[in-house]
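ok trying again, last paste got cut off:
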Amino acid sequence: MKILIIGPKDRYDAYAPDFLAQMPVELIFARQYPSSLEAARANPDSEVILVDAITPVGAELMDCLPRLKMVHSEGVAYNCIDLNAARERNVFVCHNKGFNASSVAEHTVMLMLMVLRHGITGHRAVVEGRQIQMKEACMAAKGPELGEQTVGLVGFGDIGQAVAKLLRAFGCKLYYYTAHRRPPEVEEQFGVTYLPLEELAASCTMLSLHCAVNDHTRHIVNAALIGKMRPGSYLINTARGELIDDLAVRQALIDGKLAGFAADTLYPEPTPADHPLVALPPEVADKAVYSPHLGGNTGGSFARGHRNMWNSVRLLLEGQRPNYIVNGL
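nice, full thing came through this time. structure:
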């Protein structure tokens, strides 16, 4: 079986599971070609695509591969894969469900703490010799603690649940919104209370995004929802940049509606330097904290994800259905 890999060879070498060496597969790395489309055209007998979570895989590419059986995201996200085109061609689309939940949850809490406790501005003050001035300013400012926050989790899948588990240890009051409310026993297990989205925004001092991007969630955080939030609230996004209306969040930071914003993902990627949430006015620039999409970027996450991907390939070779199909086949 020929496998077309849209991703760097060194990463696939580093995380290859032991059983891969015994599998009858030929690996083709798309990066040796001018584009992913050219790689597909040069290898029309490929039966599987393994692709990072931010590279588009559309109908044109699939049409180059008449034997294609599966497109597998290297991550949790699969919004860059055309699900309808794959379903029409009887091609499974799969993802690595839950593989990075603990890693992203840790990263989420880190960003929460950084935006609340001056993680970047405090570091800068020490480096620039302003430690005492910064310390005295913070003491007079009645700085917030994470445990004092009422946190609203938008989305309550594997990552949202992992975040709730960590935040309970801080003493946060926890609410959540998701399209499908969880059973009472799950709510009790994680110490969370369900609220409709607008009520969640109005009730919480911090919103943390943990849902997938689709037609219902794209720009779920827009001017209308921000208008429902408490003045001085915080917004955390370790999910996908498309979940927020960039201009609405920018304006909320400028107006003071948002006291802080922290993000591991912005749209598009790579993020340009003139992005409206990066090129903020100087007077509000310190309200924002960013990381370069590192939430799931740990050795443990990649090892779990790659093992699941190759397990799905192995299942295909055995004539079985792969794991974690997301396009309804």
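cool. The mean pLDDT is 96. The chain is about 35% helix and 15% strand.
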